[in-house]
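pls design
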């Protein structure tokens, strides 16, 4: 009478699966925002140069910026907010001239954020000084100078920064008589 039919499940058409997955991959790659890492544009000395330069610096020509392990900034041993460094560095370089040296000491435990803020303040200070020298010498801003003119302005206003990492920041805070709580700005200032 009635014959039993066998029902077969139809197979899925998977020929376009690879195309769809690649299109989704490309879509997500294009629409995803990538966070840009923080960084500093610095030209480092060549790696094959093994010897360090040793120079004699007079005390009046040295500005020491110390970042303690408590992330406090000391300018010549005195606690200072980071946003004041630009003005202090500008005034220091104007007063001392080409013989100046800015020394940065950072404790290994210090936060990178305060270090980046400090570097940005120094870059801003040197940028202003070089812009001022360019206006005085050539009558136009530093950014609009030719390469030769820029090099001349860099000779007039050299960027002299020395960096030291390690226990120097801790010993500097102790040598100036600044305790860890004072360096962090939470303690009261004590004078001997």
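designed seq:
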């Amino acid at each position: 009478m009635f014959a039993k039919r066998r029902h077969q499940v139809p197979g899925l058409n998977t020929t376009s699966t690879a195309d769809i997955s690649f299109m989704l991959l490309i879509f997500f790659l294009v629409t995803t925002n990538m966070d840009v890492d923080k960084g500093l544009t610095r030209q480092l000395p060549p790696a094959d140069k093994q010897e360090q330069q040793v120079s004699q610096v007079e005390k009046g020509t040295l500005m020491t910026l110390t970042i303690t392990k408590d992330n406090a900034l000391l300018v010549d041993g005195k606690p200072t907010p980071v946003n004041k460094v630009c003005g202090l560095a500008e005034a220091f370089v104007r007063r001392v001239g080409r013989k100046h040296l800015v020394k940065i000491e950072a404790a290994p435990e210090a936060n990178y954020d305060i270090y980046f803020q400090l570097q940005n303040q120094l870059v801003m200070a040197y940028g202003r000084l070089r812009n001022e020298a360019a206006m005085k010498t050539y009558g136009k801003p530093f950014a609009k100078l030719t390469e030769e003119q820029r090099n001349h302005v860099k000779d007039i206003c050299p960027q002299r920064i020395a960096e030291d990492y390690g226990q120097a920041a801790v010993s500097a805070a102790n040598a100036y008589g600044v305790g860890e709580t004072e360096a962090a700005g939470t303690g009261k200032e004590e004078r001997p």
